[in-house]
Amino acid sequence: MRVLLVEDDAGIVAFVRQGLTEAGFTVDAVVDGLEGLAAARVATYDAIILDGMLPGLDGLAVLVELRRLGIRTPVLLLTARAAVEDRVAGLETGADDYLTKPFAFTELLARLRALLRRPPLQADQLLRVGDLELDPLRRSVRRGGSPVDLSPREFALLACLMRHAGQALTRTQIAEQIWSLDYAGDTNVVDVYIGYLRRKLGLAHGGPRIQTVRGVGYRLSLEPEDA
Fold first, then answer.
1. Fewest Cβ atoms nearer than 10 Å: which of 59, 78, 91, 163?
2. Structure pTM?
């Protein structure tokens, strides 16, 4: 399970990261709201632990923007404000649960696991780009109405490209999201799987194409590829 921790207190980051890592989670940590919003837009997380008071952009503003963008990742909101109206504001803004500071790590872990047991809100949302359709619930892909057989990694890669259709993604961003690893420049795993997808989807003529963006990476687009 991959978790995004958005927290500017170095002490909290250290003990939460250590505890979650020991519990088997992969943890990405950022220290302000703008970085947290950017990370949540690029990568897919199983849950987000979000501090309510952050530099750059506060936690509630981050929540509002995440939900406006259609990102339904479960969010556990952390805050030092314990008043009922503060908890209500966080929940009505889009938080899935609320934990006040100071807190015991065991409670945070229990609440996080409870969130992860809930049915995913985005699981049944079809992704469509041109004549390409991906169904996350049925784990199926169709191109022009015809089924396409993909491996689990190919399916995850295509879902990533479709969720960010029109956006150029770096090889590092893709590798971190699909393989949860630090991308090394001498590794061509992303390029290899892009090749697999291109052959299976037949996107070279008409409809959406997986474009190579020079000096950056790849994007899925309906627009003609730059010469």
1. 91
2. 0.56
